[in-house]
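Key result, reporting period 2: structure in, sequence out.
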């Protein structure tokens, strides 16, 4: 097995090698979301708004899977650096048990109570009905997603990023094609509008799961085997709970808070803000693609270096990663500003909605820097060293004791203008900075979490 070399200038090349496929993967994901908005733009703004609100559940589910995947990556990357493949397989099985149970719960809710799920975001009967149809059709995708994300996260943790990107590429391209077919009723298919977006997603995820099974069957080391669901190891299970559960809880807390932002916008700020927020979120996703790619790649490399017990070199690598993060945040802001004229020209919004969108994009042009630094440190650097607890505590306090209450007070009690409410909601990342940077400097996150003698009787 090839070992990671000293974090000299070659570290940048190693990060680039991992970052490029991850960025491509995230870019394709954002492109699918863009295609949804572009195509639904011709159907009507109410379809865009309904999908934007209903998709909040997918966002929360993504945070769950990302947290489980990150927790698995924390352990798998270090055990890969240590050379322990058996431990990686056990961790994979543990993560799959959690992800499959959670995805089943979400799928059951989407089938049984979709209207109730939509009422949490909007009182508008039209949006509720459109969103309910979307949720029913996307329930199958939830089931597939739980297996796909965990297995691909394990592959990324051992450096097989290109495989993950290739599989996602096929699924995303198929998703875009099927979007057009089912939204507009091409080739004799029914014209389903927003429900067609969900159906296209479910079919493409099903195809991706089949491809994952094929890759697993041909893999020489890490496979997706049903038997892994029944493998038990008390120490690894305890380590997984100690690291993955705070990581998952952290991402759920963060994802739910962002969903509450949508609740605030949908319930108190009006349909123009809901529609404008759909476009603003889409553009922000493009602006953060590079930032999140750097964070993911850097976290994988740091985990492998720490697993080899090279602590000082890991600290140096973390400093280099932070420099790349600041650069990627600046690039992300520039992307948002560059996209602004095109988005404003294209968006099928009222004049009021376009006015909102212009200011929201300006806010997001600097907001991505806050997100870049915090994501790299909390989800990349700290988790690479086995520290997921700090991020959970930090996000819980900032998001739920500061940002969400502030948003409700500003919108419901003080009845501030919509853009002022949006501005206040977008201060959360910068409020975290002092505590996050202080924790980084302390180096309390820098720990080797692997164990010896895991399988000795």
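The corresponding designed sequence is given below.
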């Amino acid at each position: 097995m090839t070992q990671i070399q000293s974090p000299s200038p070659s570290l940048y090349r190693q990060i680039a090698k991992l970052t490029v496929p991850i960025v491509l993967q995230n870019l394709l994901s954002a492109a699918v979301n863009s295609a949804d908005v572009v195509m639904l733009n011709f159907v009507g703004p109410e379809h865009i708004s309904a999908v934007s609100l209903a998709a909040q559940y997918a966002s929360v589910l993504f945070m769950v899977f990302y947290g489980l995947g990150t927790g698995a990556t924390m352990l798998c990357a270090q055990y890969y650096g240590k050379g322990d493949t058996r431990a990686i397989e056990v961790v994979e099985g543990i993560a799959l048990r959690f992800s499959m149970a959670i995805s089943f719960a979400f799928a059951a809710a989407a089938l049984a109570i979709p209207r109730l799920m939509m009422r949490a975001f909007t009182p508008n009967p039209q949006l509720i009905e459109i969103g309910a149809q979307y949720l029913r059709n996307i329930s199958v995708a939830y089931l597939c997603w739980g297996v796909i994300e965990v297995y691909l996260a394990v592959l990324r943790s051992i450096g097989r990023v290109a495989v993950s990107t290739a599989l996602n590429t096929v699924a995303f391209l198929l998703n875009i094609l099927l979007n057009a077919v089912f939204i507009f009723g091409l080739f004799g298919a029914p014209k389903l509008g927003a429900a067609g977006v969900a159906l296209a997603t479910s079919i493409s995820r099903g195809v991706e799961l089949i491809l994952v099974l094929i890759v697993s069957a041909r893999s020489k080391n890490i496979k997706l085997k049903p038997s892994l669901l029944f493998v038990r190891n008390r120490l690894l299970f305890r380590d997984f709970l100690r690291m993955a559960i705070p990581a998952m809880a952290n991402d759920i807390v963060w994802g739910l808070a962002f969903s509450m932002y949508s609740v605030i916008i949908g319930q108190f700020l009006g349909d123009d803000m809901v529609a404008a927020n759909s476009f603003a979120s889409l553009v922000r996703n493009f602006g953060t693609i590079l930032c999140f790619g750097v964070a993911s790649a850097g976290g994988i490399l740091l985990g492998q270096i720490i697993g080899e017990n090279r602590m000082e070199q890991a600290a140096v690598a973390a400093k280099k990663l932070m420099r790349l993060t600041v650069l990627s945040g600046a690039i992300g802001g520039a992307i948002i500003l560059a996209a602004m004229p095109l988005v404003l020209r294209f968006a099928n919004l009222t004049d009021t909605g376009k006015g909102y969108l212009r200011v929201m994009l300006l806010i997001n042009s600097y907001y991505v820097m806050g997100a870049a630094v915090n994501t790299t440190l909390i989800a990349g650097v700290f988790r690479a060293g086995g520290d997921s607890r700090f991020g959970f505590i930090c996000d819980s306090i900032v998001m739920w004791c500061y940002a969400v209450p502030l948003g409700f007070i500003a919108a419901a009690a003080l009845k501030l203008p919509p853009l002022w409410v949006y501005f206040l909601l977008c201060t959360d990342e910068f409020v975290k900075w002092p505590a996050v940077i202080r924790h980084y400097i302390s180096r309390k996150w820098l720990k080797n979490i692997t164990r010896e003698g895991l399988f000795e009787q």
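Residues 45-82 form the longest helix (38 residues). The CA atoms of residues 302 and 314 lie 6 Å apart. This case is discussed further under Risks and Mitigation.
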